[in-house]
Structures are given as C-alpha cells and as structure tokens.
Amino acid sequence: METIENRLKDIRHDLDHDLSNIHSQEEFDQLKIKFLGRQGLINTLFKTLPIKDNPEIPKLINILKSEIEVKIDQKSLSLSQELRTTSIDVTLPGINPPQGSVHLITQAIEEIENIFARLGFIRRRYPEVDTDWYYAEGLNIPKDHPARDDQETFYLDKNIVLTAHTSNGQLHEMELMKHPPIKMTNIGKTYRRQTDATHNPMFHQFEGLLIDKDISITHLIGVTEYFVKSYFGLDREVRLRPHHFQFTEPSFEIDISCDICQGKGKINDKRCKICKSGWLELGGAGMVHPNVLRNGGIDPEKYSGFAFGWGVERVLMMKSGLKLPDLRQLFSDDLRFLKQF
Ligand code: PHE
What we know:
With 341 residues, this protein is an alpha+beta fold. It is built from 11 helices and 12 strands.
C-alpha cells in the first residue's frame, strides 16, 4: 500500500511541476494527454495496480483523477488569459468607444441662448414649478379671468402650478435686478394639458424680456429680426399680427416668411403645402403691460419694455424642415431616432 501511495504522490508532484512550465496551448494539450489520455498515467494506474484485491485502490486513484481534472481546468482558464494579454496585435485598428452627443433640443437651446447672448441677453433659469402669482396673477391675469382658460395646466395645489409658459420669469427678473436695464432670456420646460402627435404635455419655451428707458415696438422688431435671420437665415422676413395677451399691451403674434415658397404662399400657382399663406407662426410677443412693470417694482412712467415667448421645438422643426410623424419622438429616448442628429 505504501508504494502505491508513493506512486500517487509522484504523479501529483509531476503534475504540479508540468503545470508550472506550460506557456502554450500545445504544451497544455500534451499535458492533458499525459495524465488523462487513454494511455495516460491515470489509466496506467488502473491497469497496473491490483485494484481487484483492494477496493481502496480505485478510490484513491479516482480522488487523484478529480484533483488532476480540477487543476487542469484552472490552468486552462489562466492560460487563456495569459495568452490573450500577451498576444495583442498592435497593428490592428483600434476599437472606437461609442460616443454620445447632445440631444437635439439641447442643441437648439444652446444655439438660441448664444444668439441672444450676442445682443447682451443674460440666460436665466427661473422655476418651472411656480406660484400662481408669478405664473398668472402678477402677470395681470386675475383668478377668475377667462384668459386662464387658454392655458389649462397642472396645479400641484391651489397655489402651485407647473408653468404653462416661461413668462413667470419676467417678475422674478424684475425682482432680482430691481432697476433696468434688464435683458434676459428664460429658457425652460413648460407644461400644458395636451397630448397628440403634434403636442406633448411637456415642451420648451424661450422667453425674452428687455426693459429700459424709451423702449418701443421698433426694438422688439429689431431683436426679433436679429434672431430670425441668425437662426433661420438672412432671407427670412418678420411680420407682426395684432393679438391679445394679458401681460403685454399692445400684443402680437409674430410670423416669419416660409422658406419653401419664399413667403409667396404659392409654388407654381399652387398653394404652398407647408404654410398655405406664405407665413409661419413663431409665437407671442408684446410691450410689457404697465401693471406687470408695477408688480415687478418698476415705474411704468419711467421705463418700458418688450417680452416674447416662443417654442423651442417649434423653431427647431421650422428650421430643419424636420417633419416628425409624431413630435413625441423627440422625448422618446429612442437611440435609432436620436443618432441621426
Ligand atoms: N406666454 C405667451 C405664451 O405662452 C407668449 C408671450 C410671452 C406673449 C411674452 C407675450 C409676451 O403663449
């Protein structure tokens, strides 16, 4: 029995020695054959030892066999790692890590922000969840006024609202600055009770506010033209249509000429399918109402100003000719869609 145990010990020793000297797949395959192959050391033990006379012997051989199998498996793992790290082909082209990009809407916001910054407008971020005062009442919209019906929105409680426009920034800015000149843009999320292919309950607006001495509609037109020509192109025209907002007087809707029919409303005597009239609506604007100036602590006898509030998604679509079957794609986070931009 003792000599048998010695033979097993020798094999163990042999295995450890061989394993530590293996550095290639071929050497590894040979080692496997040497110990576990048909003519290998283990099988030779079964054939040469008196296993029938002593049932302990096959048990011992089997224990040794499983030990060898485990060690060989471990070596197989470490060898494949070793081979992988030592066999880098530096002449192969590298693997490009995937690269992210700025979301389409963020790109538009940055572009808009930069255009107004060139005119000296500071970009603010005023609350998207605000009190009724900043959102409506302070903007000359009393609690029972029908103008509130135009902007059905989400109230978190009686006094706190998810803002349906960025105009709530106007009073915040007057309070912050206290004295004109005031020149700011407030770009942010807005919320309305609407959802269909062309409307999303959340969208973005950019608000502009300029207050100083002797500010007139001419300045509003000048700033609007600067924006329109910078953002859409030099050939685009601007027009003002009378409108009504509670917080501006007079108030306007601003239109820009359609690029498809060059403002003619017709292409080869056929009505332009994009605009139908030669003009596309940009959004609301007007001269800040004296009550709003007063609510912001500014004397309307001394100062005047203008404000506008336009949609980011709207200008983005108008500029790029991007025709989305569903506007909500912009917010879907579907990479197949977003990767195009
Ligand atoms: N707040 C208005 C809207 O959301 C737009 C607007 C802003 C109009 C500023 C006039 C002045 O429709």
